[in-house]
Amino acid sequence: MDKIVIEPRRLSVLAFSLLFAYLLSFVFEGQVFYSLTDYFKISSTTFIFTAIIAHFVGLFGCGFFLKTARAAKIVMLYGIGLSFVGSIPFFFSGFLWTVSLIVCALASGCAVAAWGYFLKSCTPRNERIKTCADVLIYSNIVMILINLTAIYLSPLIGLGLSILVLLLAGVVTALLPTTEELPAGVSDTVVYPNLRAPMLYLILFVVIITINSGLMYQVFNPAFKYLTWLTSWYWAVPYIVALIIMRNLPGKVKRSYFLYVGMAMIMASFIAFMFLDRSAASYLVVDTLMLGACGIFDLFWWSIIGEMLDYTGNPVKIFGIGLSANVFGVLLGGLLGSSITLLNISSANVAVIALTVICITLAILPLLNRHLVMLLSNHTYLMAYASMEEKQQRNIINTAKTLDLLTNREQDVLRLILGGKTNKAIAAELVISENTVKTHVKNIYSKYGVSSRAEIISTLLKNE
Predict the structure, then answer these.
(1) What is residue 405's DSSP assignment?
(2) Which residues contact 379 (CB under 8 A, 6 or more apart)?
(3) CA distance linking residue 302 with residue 60, whole number of Å
């Protein structure tokens, strides 16, 4: 009997979707947790913020310790195991809940960050936006099913189902291939050194735009809480629909335009919340606008982070820090929303706060776009160069016009720059000191009349 082999991309999507569904339905402000606090008559506020902080620590810190695919796989399995153990006390009253929730949130945060390695290794570069869309779509569908179980059957049954999903995530994770097991044609890409500026702008963008998500949790949801029959299933539907639309857009369509559409939708949702009543029809309008926008934004920055993984030897760190920005934004928005609730601020003032956040985001977006365009277009050039034969590579260097001829050693250094090598890597390959490499690079810049790696890469390769 032939052995059934699941494509690595599909396997990684399944593993993460199940893990993320557990996280969304229970640990991270999930409906299962809220149902349990109602069932045991316990206040949820302190627990929720504790979980968000612990999850942030897990996401942000995990990548500083993981260096290999095997280590990432081990951390995912241990994270799932600890989350399983930490979930058991929630079948009983509030005893050990705080400690258990910290364990679950921290462990699941590490497991989620560790999956960044498999997003890079199991998904070809041109399909990462599909992988990101798939995991967000599938995890939210499973989350809806768990939520309905917790609300209409029993919170304890919902908890049991979320734990079952977590265990299935562990089984699938055990099947994930590490680097040594990957099929032919899948390999690590070159290390690209200039991530700091675009990553910083992306994090700033994610944190600020996600503040509105935190406001949504603390302001929108309580306002429509009595519509349990509707909010229990419809809440994430616009999010899923937006993801499906964005995932299947034709390649020629510029997705960046949809960011402005998303911002307009968020503005409209807060304005609608200000003027409409708290009926079911109003909820449909407000939730559709807000969650549809969230789907647009989430796929944007998830897919950008997926692209950025090609520039680093530590994808866990980049992926974890990127997602931690989202969690930090939710935390800020949640604290802001709680303050609004305590101070009894009117819905009109809430809308003003939200619109101010959008204005700040609009100011950041052009800067973010400029850095991302430079980074990703340079990467396209580098990949085109890497796919050429050595003779073609040398022809590019030899035929490009310079103010002065390059020496043989400068040609070698330039060839390695175009291959995406850092100064340290060039020094090691040419068996010279890093200071000598810096001198050659300075001379090359001078002869081409440029001032950075990005400029010289663009100058030499864009016409190719």
Answers:
(1) P
(2) 192, 307, 310, 311
(3) 15
How far apart CA 281 and CA 160 sit, in angstroms, is: 33
> In Å, what is the CA distance from 112 to each residue of 46, 107, 335?
23, 9, 24
Spatial separation of the C-alpha atoms in residues 194 and 93, rounded to whole Å: 50
- Residue 143 to residue 236: CA distance in whole angstroms: 9
pLDDT tens digit sequence for 377-406 = 665 566 566 666 777 777 777 777 676 778
Is this structure's pTM higher than 0.85? no
Single-letter code of the amino acid located at 39: Y
Highest mean pLDDT among 207-221, 364-378, 403-417: 403-417
| Measured distance CA(255)–CA(54) in Å, rounded | 33
In the numeric block, which tokens belong to residue 146? 């768990």
* Residue 135 contacts residue 122 (beta carbons within 8 Å): no
Q: Give the position of tokens 């998303």.
A: 262
How confident is the model over 148-201, as pLDDT tens digits? 999 999 999 999 999 999 999 999 999 998 764 444 333 343 444 456 777 888
DSSP 3: P
Other CB atoms within a 10 A radius of the CB of residue 333 amount to 26
Q: Which domains does the chain have, with CATH numbers?
A: 1-188 (1.20.1250.20), 192-368 (1.20.1250), 388-461 (1.10.10.10)
CA 291 to chain centre: 17
Query: In angstroms, rounded to a whole number, what is the distance separating the alpha carbons of residues 51 and 34?
Result: 13
Segment holding 150, helix H or strand E: helix 128-152
**Residue with token string 């919170």:** 155
**CA atoms of 432 and 413, how far apart (whole Å):** 11
* Backbone torsions φ then ψ of 344, nearest 5 degrees: 55, 45
How many whole angstroms separate alpha carbon 31 and alpha carbon 421?
48
CB atoms within 10 A of CB 163: 19
Question: Residue 12: exposed, middle, or buried by beta-carbon count in 10 A (0-12, 13-18, 19+)?
Answer: buried
Distances (CA, A) of 316 to 198, 242, 350, 434: 17, 27, 36, 28
Across 317-332, b (16+ Cβ under 10 Å) vs e yields bbbbbbbbbbbbbbbb
Residue 35 is encoded by which pair of tokens?
A: 């149902």
pLDDT > 90: what percent of the chain? Answer: 39
Q: Determine the Cα–Cα distance for residues 209 and 232; give it in Å rounded to an integer.
A: 25
How far from chain centre, in Å, is Cα 12? 15
Higher pLDDT, 219 or 112: 112
